Amino acid sequence: MKFFKLFEPLKINNMTISNRIVMPAINLNYANDGFITQKLIDFYVERAKGGAAMLIVGGCYIDLYAKGHPMMISIENDKYLPMLTELTKAVHNARSDVKVCCQLYHGGAYTYPQIIGRAPIAPSAVYSKFSKATPREMTLDDIKNEQQAFVEATLRAKKAGFDAVEICANAGYLMDQFLSPLKNKRTDEYGGVLENRIRFPIETIELMRSSAEDFNIGYRISGDDFVPGSNTYKEKAIIAEILGKHLDYLNVTGGWHVTKTPQTTMDVPEGCYTYLAENIKKHVSIPVFASNRINIPELAENILMAGKADAICMGRTLIADPYLPIKAKRGELRDIMNCVGCNQGCFDSIFKLSSVTCLRNARAGNEARTELKPLKEKKKVMVIGSGPGGLEAARVAAMRGHDVHIFEKEDKIGGLINIIWVPPGRNEFKRMIENYTYWIQKYGITVHLQEKVNLDKIKEYNPDVVFVATGSKPILPPITGIDRGNVYWANLVFSGDAPIGKNSVIIGGGATGIELAIYLAKYGALSREAFDFLTFYKALEPDVALNMLHGARNKVTVLEQLPKLGSALGKTTKWVMLDKCDALGIKMLTSVNVTEIGQNYVSYMDANDTEQVINDVDMVYYATGVKPNDNLYSELKELGTYSVVKIGDAKKPETVMEAVSRGYKVGNSI
Fold first, then answer.
1. In the predicted model, is pLDDT for residue 424 greater than 90?
2. What is the pLDDT of residues 561-599, one digit of tens each?
């Protein structure tokens, strides 16, 4: 594919960026008590080397009232300048034409009182669902103080060597709180009509501008708050038109953190929020960036060619593969390590106050410590099993120059990946298989499909090293009737090896159980392609087609022994999936113990220790956990002839991210 727009330079006031790929600010949780760390510098140096045109660093909190938490970057006073300067120098030294922007952050009502030791401040004393606190209404002196904090942070950013600043004014943060009629209940000159509500951001920008006249100022704006009672895309276009006269660019993203409209999860269609950037671009004359779920360069090019935006923000995408820009420019699209939108290493980690990692890229956040080790001695490596851990170990070992052979008992590679991409909204995991299929070819890995491995096979192959990645097997729950003919392990549904029931019971409400419930409830629903076709040709009324597309077709009950559903689902994904279950009418019961599976019923003891019965059940599925399938490993260790390492579920049941991380480490260790 040719790129006509993606690698064109873009002029932003007095600054020119070399192409249209921008890495937006992502709180990485790499800072130490507000100070830039070497880990954070290494992260951005890698992205500079990878070819992105501009790296937006942050959010960087501007004072105590703005502070998110200690692992965020601070720009609140001069003591932080030396390390901020180290960052910009390192990034500019890595690539002279890369631009570095400092995002100025103020959470307003989103600030946690337990972190700053006092009540947060905001336009009005309106309770925040995010911080679970009611802020103190800002006085006029508070307003002047916070505006001055923005000014001083701007001057520090310029002194530290940043090429621009960006105001973090999206997601429901302080600027958005002033603009929102839902959060701004003031009756003075900063509240009421839009002309007053927009006064705080305009005054702040003008003060920043007057203090640093030749410095570029951008603004990260929510294209639609997606919160009832707040600003929609219609009001945001008007707001952008007014603010655009005072800014050098607008960076358009989606809704607030408290929105019930998913913004970044895998089930959000790629590029579906670009209409927000397009809507604002029609009203301004400055460059506009598009954001959210733009994970591949082909889509980025299409958005630019369609005139919807002037630049493309790729955040998680560049966590997964810092070298995406260079690879795309060279036409090496198949070599890109695709983000799959899982949120597990990034947003889920952030909400747990952990450092950002990545399911795809085991080096993310540990760039300096995970360089590929030079090959000392070429070895013959046998990888048994081609799940995510085995594939990653094989890739890394082969990249380093080892002779790698994969043995897989099935007729295709992927292992568990072939299961997890099947449920609705999880299909991007399939890109992992596409990536590894390419790397197998690129690095000369030999794959033996439909090969069951035993000790004789290993002796025949005679490897130097054996990686055992044989996965897991289900734990059969001790329930009367579990051996009936209408009872199946959950994963067999996703592999096509189990029938689909019209009235099903799922035993186990963890991640797999919830995904299966949604899959079963919607099984047989109208496809999106059919919906588009039938409504376009007016063959079906839109409301009827919508019901056929989104409505539940089958009855499903989930029985979970624990008090909560969705264990192992990350925070950013769990609420989306549980909301889907509610919308589909899936019955979900917690704190129950299943006692018997009968001919057409399931009995259980409820939370009150009362026996209950579900009748007319045709299918039962259990999703009650797995255990390592490590018999072969035990035999090999007992033999004592070969160097043997366990990977993935064969070692212990773990997430795909954990399996990939260990696979990388093992492949880099031999």
1. no
2. 999 999 888 888 999 999 999 999 999 999 999 999 999
Residue type, 11: K
For 415, the domain range is 380-473+627-667
Question: What is the DSSP secondary structure assignment for residue 648, as one 8-state letter?
Answer: G
Q: Are strands 403-408 and 136-137 parallel, antiparallel or unpaired?
A: unpaired
- List the CATH number of the domain containing 122: 3.20.20.70
Q: Judge whether 482 and 624 are in contact, CB under 8 Å.
A: no
pLDDT over 70 for what percent of the chain?
100
Per the domain annotation, does 332 fall within a domain? yes
The answer, yes or no, to whether residue 605 has pLDDT greater than 90, is: yes
**Assigned token pair, 474:** 């289900």
Say if CB 56 and CB 318 are below 8 A apart: no
pTM: 0.95
- Kindly state the tokens that stand for 538: 């007016």
Number of domains composing the chain: 3
Q: How confident is the model at residue 351 (pLDDT cuts 50, 70, 90)?
A: confident
Kindly report the backbone phi and psi dihedral angles of residue 175, in degrees, each rounded to the nearest multiple of 5, phi listed first.
-60, -45
Say what the pLDDT of residue 615 is: 98
Instruction: Give the residue among 56, 57, 58, 46 at the shortest CA–CA distance from 95.
Output: 46
Structural domain includes residue 4: no
Q: Given the structure tokens 């009367």, which residue do they identify?
A: 480
Neighbours of 412 (CB within 10 A): 13
Tokens of 466: 């054996």
